[in-house]
Design brief:
The protein is built from nine helices and 16 strands. The protein is of the alpha+beta class. The strands form five sheets. The protein has a six-stranded mixed sheet. The chain has a three-stranded antiparallel sheet with strand order 4-5-11, with no helix packed on it. A three-stranded antiparallel sheet has the order 6-7-8, with helices on one face. α1 runs antiparallel to α7, α2 packs antiparallel against α3 and α3 packs across α8. It starts with 11 loop residues before the first helix and ends with a helix. The N terminus is likely disordered. It comes from Micromonospora olivasterospora. This is Serpin (Serine protease inhibitor).
Length: 418
């Protein structure tokens, strides 16, 4: 048994599961009920990197406000993020970065950079083309541009990227869309859907406190011998149509915590459920030859659609104000996440790039006057030499070289107007 950050037994996943579940609930709630994909982990990692910044007594929000979004204390979050980033998962490449404008470097920023995970990129703030290239490189080419646009006000830039592209260990079979059931609003809109193969996928019915009985399907990535022990599972969880999306997502996160267990928590026996049609399944019984204990064999199959999504989410209010304040007090924050995912018969691919900017605060409101000076009648011109070659004022410095009185102006030729 291992001990994760904060002294919790059971490994890193045990430590992070609850904080990530709570953060995911906030992120998805901010998006709403529309079709979307997001990466709560991608955003949370950036908050956790900021949690490593030296604490400032004059910045209580950077301390307490940030911990509230992290779901744990700052030190635990920083250690957890470092453990993930310094031992990257081979099927989910990750990257993080913290860049700054050279003329805005401070001792506080330097102290923060010194404790960042080894894999985190640091250095001078890239231009927009550089940010976009970073996003493409670390999203496996799935995201073309950085989710924020750099401007002269940007002093600090934070970035995280997660990506995966896997093939299923066993591809799906194909079924007519009518297999989704007569109550499905998609059955009449689609032609073909995915059916789990006879072997290689897992499915079950689970009882959950958030969403009641739910249907669960799990497809696993094809294992790679060179990455023994590393895998990726994609869970699909459906509840009754009247259950709120937030509750279904919470149930899915709960099930994901031990989805690879031989007997997942809350699994329902099919012999405890009534035969016939239900909103989420059809349960039938037949006589078979079986070696199952007591002669009672349970089989599960799943039918689900192919899907894809591409989104951008504003995550500024999901912890990034106190996070930026923890690293560079006085800067205002802006944060967005770009995501993409595709779930097909043969595999799954997804990527998320989360970006956060620390920008110089807007000056206080005042009054500005602008004078447009017009040289619309005769005026004088003097050409003056400047000379600071010796470090001070040289012999030519300030010497008028040419002078004129402009009394006959000329029209601008076409060659200069182009």
């Amino acid at each position: 048994m291992t001990t994760g950050p904060g002294g919790h037994s059971g490994g890193m996943s045990t430590t992070l599961h609850a904080p990530l579940s709570r953060y995911a609930a906030r992120l998805h709630a901010s998006v709403g009920d529309r079709h979307h994909v997001a990466s709560p982990l991608g955003a949370w990692l950036l908050l956790a990197l900021c949690a490593a910044a030296p604490r400032a007594a004059a910045d209580p929000d950077g301390e307490h406000g940030l911990a509230e979004f992290l779901g744990c204390d700052r030190a635990t979050a920083a250690r957890a993020a470092a453990a993930l980033l310094d031992a990257p998962h081979p099927l989910v490449p990750s990257a993080t970065a913290g860049w700054h404008r050279p003329d805005a470097d401070t001792a506080r920023l330097a102290a923060w950079r010194a404790v960042l995970p080894r894999a985190t990129d640091t250095g001078e703030l890239p231009d927009q083309a550089g940010l976009d290239a970073w996003a493409r490189e670390h999203s496996a080419g799935l995201i073309d541009r950085f989710p924020l646009t750099v401007s002269p006000e940007v002093v600090l830039a934070l970035a995280s990227a997660l990506a995966t592209r896997v093939s299923w260990a066993e591809p799906f079979d194909v079924a007519p869309a009518s297999a989704l059931g007569p109550a499905s609003p998609w059955a009449g809109r689609l032609t073909r859907v995915l059916r789990s193969p006879a072997h290689g996928h897992r499915a079950w019915i689970a009882a959950t406190p958030e969403a009641g009985d739910v249907a669960v399907h799990v497809a696993n990535a094809r294992p790679a011998p060179e990455h023994a022990g590393a895998g990726l599972s994609v869970l699909s969880v459906a509840a009754a149509p009247d259950v709120a999306p937030a509750d279904v997502l919470a149930a899915a996160y709960r099930i994901a915590a031990d989805a690879d267990a031989a007997e997942p928590a809350g699994r329902r026996s099919l012999f405890d459920l009534p035969l016939g049609e239900a909103p989420l399944w059809t349960l039938r019984e037949e006589v078979v030859h079986t070696h199952a204990r007591g002669g009672r064999e349970e089989r599960h199959a799943a039918v689900l659609p192919r899907w894809s999504a591409r989104n951008e989410h504003d995550v500024t209010d999901l912890g990034f104000r106190p996070a930026v304040a923890a690293v560079a007090p006085g800067l205002r924050a802006e944060a967005r996440q770009a995501t993409v995912a595709s779930y097909t018969r043969y595999g799954f691919e997804a990527a998320a790039v989360t970006g956060a900017f620390g920008l110089v605060s807007l000056p206080p409101e005042g009054v500005a006057r602008t004078a447009e000076l017009r040289f619309g009648h005769p005026y004088a011109v003097v050409a003056v030499a400047t000379d600071r070659r010796a470090g001070g004022a040289g012999p030519w410095h300030g010497v008028p070289v040419f002078s004129a009185w402009v009394a006959e102006p000329e029209d601008l030729p076409d060659s200069e107007a182009a």
